[in-house]
Design brief:
Elements: H1 14-45, H2 54-66, H3 83-97, H4 102-128, H5 153-170, H6 176-196, H7 201-213, H8 217-242, H9 244-257, H10 269-297, H11 301-325, H12 340-343, H13 350-373, H14 386-399, H15 403-427, E1 440-441, E2 451-452, H16 454-470, E3 476-480, H17 486-489, E4 493-494, H18 511-520, E5 526-532, H19 547-553, E6 554-561, E7 565-572, H20 575-592
Parallel strand pairs: 3-4, 3-5
Antiparallel strand pairs: 1-2, 5-7, 6-7
Helix pairs in contact: 1-15, 2-3, 4-5, 5-6, 5-13, 6-8, 8-9, 9-18, 10-11, 11-14, 13-14, 14-15, 18-20
Length: 593
């Protein structure tokens, strides 16, 4: 038998296998190093900054439920269902430590949850879709500009949608019984995601429609069963605690009163649609270029691959450059390079391509839908497109045939993107001073352990001491303006439909408050106004629609001011008359709406 020269150097020989082992080890070490860096950076990063608006809302809601309030019954904001599992964790924390340091606890809880969901998503993808899916693909999702590190309705949408689609696509070609089980898991997850982030209903309906078209009956049945079980558990729990009548009234109040379900905005619909069109144009240009390349080079596979990859890389780098030029890394028009995957010759991973394309398309649908209803227009949810952007990088990774080259390019892209995010995140703190000015750590209270400026660290401790001084157990407290955090630091019971909407700032109507007073058959015994330095109080604004109610039935009893906050306390004078007025107003406003 004739010997083959240098057989040990062939791809299947010892030299080829050794080279493959070395390459695998190198990339494994690189991924471990990047993941460790991400973990250390995130732990350091979450210690910085104090936000007085959104973060307080995300924490106050589950705290109120942990203390006994009921989602959809007397917690009536847009995301009360988000609080149901979170409230159990917060209840345990409150039992052990009270409210001391609860904001830092929430941030660390977010890190554990975020890393956990990403790890589970990667496990499903690598086990059932793409065995060589890079671990570092999820790292940039952890960190976004102008981002708060809390489990909230935005982060639930960002993290659960890829996992949901991974479960759906993993079951695509499975035997019916196994697909049914995967469907149940996807249904439970999908219901949880929709309850926490209502705009996820759009992607969920798209997934159901796709399964109907492809006649995946068992999988669809599993999804509907899982979603039904999750929904019944939530409804049953709320009914048992609050009663079906109050639950129905609360649901109608949310749909009638909450701003998120109404088209009310600061910019026009035409401008929003125009900006959405601007987001879409680069994708159309790229699609046209890729299709033209396919038509011209379909018989020259290697050249076609090279051209498609060059197009993808070029559009991607231009999109990143555009975002950096405006110092807004979220605004990246490179969420569409996945288009090249169906055009590639010899791609035998259609299920994986379906998963990738599904995430990108559905995220874009969420972005478009939420942009129309969000009062800030297209800028309100643009960071949702960071996930499709990362997956566009992955499309390039899948398109390059050489394993080592593909992984090298992808690793450099993702590592570079993540490091740029780290750099900007370290410079820009959401509604607080830059990190170099964070020279103090809050010594006590709900923000204990958070790093901020000397003035803020001192002012928040003084404010909390003041709130504890003027509230006591048994008080029914309504805080005015956007001061959700005050519901975490006071000693009384909340008397508000939500820590978020008590300001009525967007539509200047007390309808939500009167609906809550109606369903609870109670009015606040204390109304406390808190303003930050430079901002005004609604009680001092002549056209505030809630002021006549306060002036008629309450009297000012306390005033406090420090270098950052101003506090006014109003105590109830005529409870029976105030309650009768609130009930009458609730009925009148219900008839008008």
């Amino acid at each position: 038998m004739k010997e083959i020269p240098h057989a040990d150097r062939l791809p299947g020989g010892p030299t080829g296998r050794n080279r493959q082992r070395v390459e695998t080890l190198l990339f494994c070490l690189a991924e471990i190093a990047l993941c460790l860096f991400a973990a250390v950076f995130m732990v350091k990063r979450v210690q910085h900054g104090i936000d007085f608006s959104d973060e307080g809302w995300y924490i106050a809601d589950p705290v109120l439920v942990a203390k006994g309030r009921i989602p959809y019954v007397n917690v009536l904001d847009v995301v009360p269902g988000l609080t149901i599992p979170l409230a159990l964790v917060f209840r345990a924390y409150l039992a052990v430590a009270g409210t001391e340091g609860i904001f830092m606890f929430s941030r660390y809880l977010y890190l554990v949850w975020a890393f956990g969901v990403l790890a589970l998503t990667l496990f499903v993808i690598r086990r059932h879709l793409l065995p060589d899916f890079p671990v570092i693909a999820g790292l940039p999702v952890l960190l976004m500009l102008y981002y708060l590190f809390d489990i909230n309705y935005n982060t639930v949408g960002i993290y659960y949608l890829p996992l949901l689609i991974a479960l759906v696509c993993a079951a695509w070609d499975m035997p019916e019984q196994k697909a049914f089980r995967f469907g149940i898991a996807a249904g439970v997850l999908g219901a949880r995601a929709i309850i926490a982030s209502p705009f996820l209903l759009i992607p969920a309906l798209c997934i159901i429609l796709l399964l109907l078209i492809r006649r995946k009956k068992k999988q669809l049945l599993g999804i509907l069963l899982g979603a039904g079980i999750a929904a019944l558990l939530v409804i049953g729990w709320c009914c048992l605690r609050g009663g079906p009548e109050r639950l129905i009234y609360g649901l109608f109040a949310i749909l009638k009163d909450d701003d998120y379900f109404h088209y009310e905005r600061r910019i026009s619909l035409s401008k929003t649609l125009y900006m959405i069109w601007r987001y879409t144009v680069p994708a159309l240009r790229f699609a046209a270029s890729a299709l033209l390349a396919r038509l011209l080079l379909r018989r020259r596979e290697r050249l076609l691959r090279a051209v498609l990859c060059a197009l993808a890389l070029g559009f991607m780098l231009y999109g990143i450059y555009t975002g950096l030029r405006w110092q807004r890394l979220m605004i990246i028009n490179c969420w569409f390079e996945f288009i090249i995957l169906p055009l590639l010759p010899g791609r035998g991973k259609r299920k994986a391509d379906l998963a990738l394309c599904g995430v990108v398309v559905l995220y874009y649908l969420m972005f478009v839908t939420s942009s129309i209803f969000n009062i800030f227009g297209y800028e309100g949810r643009e960071y949702w497109l960071v996930v499709p952007c990362i997956l566009s990088c992955l499309a390039l990774y899948l398109a390059i045939p050489q394993r080592f080259a593909a992984r090298s390019v992808f690793t450099v892209l993702i590592a570079g993107f993540f490091l740029i995010q780290c750099r900007y995140s370290w410079d820009q703190i959401y509604r607080d001073a830059p990190i170099p000015e964070h020279t103090a750590t809050v010594s006590s209270g709900i923000w204990k352990g958070c790093k901020t400026t000397e003035a803020r660290a001192r002012a928040v401790v003084e404010l909390e001491d003041c709130i504890h001084e003027i509230t006591e157990p048994g008080d029914r407290v309504l805080f005015r303006e956007w001061v959700s955090y005050a519901y975490v630091m006071n000693d009384g019971d909340a008397c508000t439909p939500s820590p978020l909407v008590s300001c009525d700032a967007r539509c200047n109507t007390p309808v939500f408050l009167f609906d809550l007073f109606y369903t609870d058959r109670a009015v606040p015994t204390k109304i406390i106004y808190i303003s930050e330095e430079g901002s005004s109080l609604s009680i001092e604004t002549e056209d505030c629609a809630f002021n006549p109610f306060v002036n008629a039935y309450y009297e000012k009893t306390f005033t406090y001011e420090n270098e950052l906050f101003r506090v006014l306390e109003y105590d109830l004078r005529h409870e029976n008359e105030a309650l009768a007025c609130a009930m009458e107003n609730a009925s009148k406003l219900s008839r008008q709406s």
